[in-house]
Amino acid sequence: MLKDFVSNATLLIASFSIMGVVFKDKPLHFFSPLPTKLYWGLTFGVLGNILMSFSIQVSPTIIADLRHLAIVIAAAFGGYIPALIAAFLIAIGRIILSGFSQASLLPSIGALLIGILCGGISKISIHRTMKAFIMNLIGLFIISIIFIMRIDDFQILKNVLTLHYLISLLGGLIAYHFFVFVVDSNEAQSQLKQSLIKIKETEERFRLIAEYSSDMITMHNEKTEYIYISPAVEEIIHFKYPELLGKRMEYFIHSDDIEHTNEMFAKALRDGVAECTYRYLSKTGEYVWIESTLKSVHFEEDGSKRVIIVSRNITERKLTDQKLQEANELLNRLSYMDGLTGISNRRYFDETLEKEWSESLLSHSPISLIMFDIDYFKKYNDTYGHLTGDFCLQSIAQAIKELIPDSSGYTFCRYGGEEFALILPAAKTVEGINTAHKIQKTVKSLKIPHISSEISEYVTLSIGLATMVPSSSAKPQDLIKEADTELYLSKTKGRNTISIKQ
């Protein structure tokens, strides 16, 4: 009898292996779809009938087997639906196997009762293992009642119940954990299959994105070597895939941009993401502006990192930005330029004097200002006309502009009308006097005729010079006032002279 019970348990466990393979794509759990629960319920019912076919003949009308474990496992994993289906099929099978009689009707009712009770217990919120153990005990209790009602010989009853409890509890424990293993294995395989499908879909999406993207997508190892290049490389930098594979990025980057690009590559490896704009040497021999987004990817297999770079050609945008910047710079220069003479205007004079005054205040250095205008310029315009007057202003302005070297740091401006000003930062009075004499001499050398002048046959200048060391109590306007006063003094002294604030 022991051998027969062990064979019954072995058949139960072996059947679980077959069921796991057959329904590997339809795992059984409480949230399985209804069709899946129906499939499993039918299968457990068939298993219960197979176990009955290999049952132990206790007496001419009494058989013992482990069919109730099929109902217990169905209820523990799938709930009441597969449990009731299995119980119903086992009940029908018992009647078909032995015919409709009291000997078959009682076990059939017992099977249905086990199915109902196990289905109810499946809804209790306790661990599944504990549920299965309780269901097994309930099934054994119902079977024990049936054996007690049918077996009169106490010794036979004792032996049957002892073996039945021993094999059912031990076999049930093994069968339960084996079915757990089958279910978990199927779920793991299903998850692996889904993961592989997702990986394949991801790879396909990446391939489509990489192949049809207008941006260039590249992958690099930690040495910046190319290990993947998308087809857009030919359109953007005109290289073919094999021409870049295995080569390092810096071989193609402008020397002025290599350091910054390497820093951004290292940042991507360290922080995960970075952005960079640089010049790249295309196959045509010309540098193109590239804008790249860098992102590092960690490979679990070997612990290495890769950097994926998405790049686009922004040369046209750079050129547009450059032209816009140049246009803005030109507008800025024009806003500070006198339209007639081409030198700096009054606005630029005011801002520059303010700046130079502040710097001189900090350094405790002197600042000189020369102011001058053309003698009898109104009479010049009346005699020669305004167009000739404009040409006269232009000639004087250009001559004095060429006189002042760029390295001097001096600022030459048209102050207004025929009046001009020259700012000399860090210049003492003696330097101002020398410069004033050079200006006077330069204008005389132009020999611009002025028949209406009362002091010379050529155009002359009246010049005023003032020098100050800025202090917190003084303002730039004080320097202007002193220079203007000296200019007025030159005019009252007969013009064509230089007056200096002593």
Automatic annotation (TrEMBL):
Residues 274-326 form the PAC domain. It is a multi-pass membrane protein. It holds the Pfam family PAS_3. Residues 365-502 form the GGDEF domain. The keyword Nucleotidyltransferase applies. Its EC number is 2.7.7.65. Keywords: Cell membrane, Membrane, Nucleotidyltransferase, Transferase, Transmembrane, Transmembrane helix. It is found in: Cell membrane. PROSITE patterns: GGDEF, PAC, PAS. InterPro entries: Diguanylate_Cyclase, GGDEF_dom, Nucleotide_cyclase, PAC, PAS, PAS-assoc_C, PAS-like_dom_sf, PAS_fold_3. Residues 202-272 form the PAS domain. Its main location: membrane. The keyword Nucleotidyltransferase applies. The chain crosses the membrane at residues 5-23, 38-58, 70-97, 103-121, 133-151, 163-183. CDD domains: GGDEF, PAS. GO terms for molecular function: diguanylate cyclase activity. This is Diguanylate cyclase domain-containing protein. It comes from Bacillus salipaludis.
